[in-house]
Design brief:
alpha/beta
């Protein structure tokens, strides 16, 4: 499966964000991409960085654009995962999976702290989806700090895990960027599962848009702070010697 991750400067202007998303989907079509991943809150912006708080969102506009995104998935015959703020009785930090000719599925962020707690309700669903015969786990930003959220995915034998970030700074913080990349590498290694992440880029990007292999190797990585469209040809692979060993030990813990 050819997968893309699109990093761009997410803003508080829903219509402008939608135009960026449409542009990336058109690029995906041109490059025969089957799945595109967008950052956390890519459609709406993230409070309080881009908007004062989650209640300021025009939720009717969000619903209208989600309808347009589903039509776009049908028209282009491409799947994509879009981060947004969404009101469904309560307000959630949501990743929505759009697939051609199918009902939307979603994952709501569960690890809430700080600004998240001020703006969102904790999610309840597991975030595991089947796309083109591949089992994909979805996690959002702060959840990368906690191995438990990814161990859940290991138990379900996901083939690929994706992480949507909105992790930015007002200063150029290389240390934070490298720390979060290290978290991603660890989650990939301990769960013997490829990880793809995507982040916003403005003012300064502090989480990578990157593909990390099952043994923690950096396969592809976007330049920081630049709008970029990363494409990766994902294939299921046989575990190498070290990966077999980690999986054997992991299974003894996880499945006892």
């Amino acid at each position: 499966m050819k997968i893309a991750a699109y990093q761009f400067a997410v803003s508080g202007d829903i219509r402008n964000n939608f135009e960026e998303i449409k542009k990336a989907i058109s690029m995906a079509k041109e490059n025969l991409v089957e799945l595109v991943i967008f950052p956390e809150c890519a459609l709406t912006g993230y409070p309080p960085k881009d908007i004062p708080d989650s209640t300021c969102i025009d939720f009717k506009l969000v619903d209208d654009i989600c309808h347009k995104l589903q039509m776009l998935a049908d028209e282009k015959e491409i799947s994509f995962i879009v981060g947004t703020i969404y009101r469904d009785e309560k307000i959630y930090n949501r990743a929505i999976l759009f697939q051609p000719y199918k009902n939307c599925q979603f994952y709501d962020k569960r690890a809430l702290w700080g600004w998240d707690r001020d703006n969102f309700t904790e999610g309840q669903n597991e975030g595991i989806f089947e796309i083109g015969g591949i089992t994909i786990g979805v996690r959002i930003c702060f959840e990368i700090r906690f191995p438990e959220y990814f161990r859940e995915l290991y138990k379900q034998r996901t083939d690929l895990n994706v992480v949507l970030f909105y992790d930015v700074s007002d200063v150029d913080d290389h240390d934070r960027y490298n720390m979060i990349k290290g978290h991603l590498q660890t989650r990939a290694v301990e769960n013997v599962t490829i990880v793809i992440s995507v982040d916003s880029i403005k003012p300064f990007q502090t989480a990578p848009t990157v593909v990390i292999g099952k043994s923690g190797e950096i396969i592809k990585e976007c330049d920081r702070n630049k709008t970029e469209f990363l494409i990766y040809d994902f294939e299921k692979s046989v575990d190498d010697f070290g990966e077999q060993g980690r999986r054997e030990i992991s299974d003894s813990f996880v499945f006892d």
